[in-house]
Amino acid sequence: MNLPPPENLSDVDQTRWFTDEVRAHESSLRSYLRGSFPTVRDVDDVVQESFLRIWKARAGQPIQSARAFLFRVARNLALDVVRRRRVAPVEAVGELAELRVVDERPGAAETLNAQEKLAVLTDALDALPVRCREAIILCKLQGKSYREAAMSLGIAEKTIAEHVYRGTQRLGEELNKRGIDRFGT
After folding, report:
1. How far apart are CA 168 and CA 123, in angstroms?
2. Taking the model in full, what pTM does it have?
3. Which of 14, 114, 180, 183 has CB atoms 3.0–4.6 Å from 175's, for a disulfide?
4. End-to-end CA distance of the chain
5. In the chain, % of residues over pLDDT 70
6. CA-CA-CA-CA dihedral for 118, 120, 125, 128, to nearest 10
């Protein structure tokens, strides 16, 4: 339908054009959107936004094929909806009070501090005599009893107890020298 440029049309003519050339395709547009984009839940919103955009476009310049233009605009809008849903999917939430808002994991500073303390402890352990270090590792770090540690190392249970006691004392002194007390602060 060849019409004069939009700026020369009266409001009645614009409305008639919209009703005859655009609105007439609403049901087929809805069917197309539902069939081609089943994940788009708000087909009504896409249709209304398409109508608005074609109305605005018509105000600026003539449209040769209103139906083709309408379907192209609706297709692009539906694709935008699908893309947005893939990038930032919306998940249904049952009870807002049950949501965990605060992240309780340690931050970067706490993680770095723990890593530094572990490095200091490792250095302090390495400074211990071999048997003393083995006894500390078996009893304090691996949680073995003095009897199990003694059997593992082939020495007396009393000797293990002495190594653990002296090793703990030396570790405490070494950690204190480096600014870490026995309680990890």
Report:
1. 14
2. 0.45
3. 180
4. 83
5. 83
6. -170
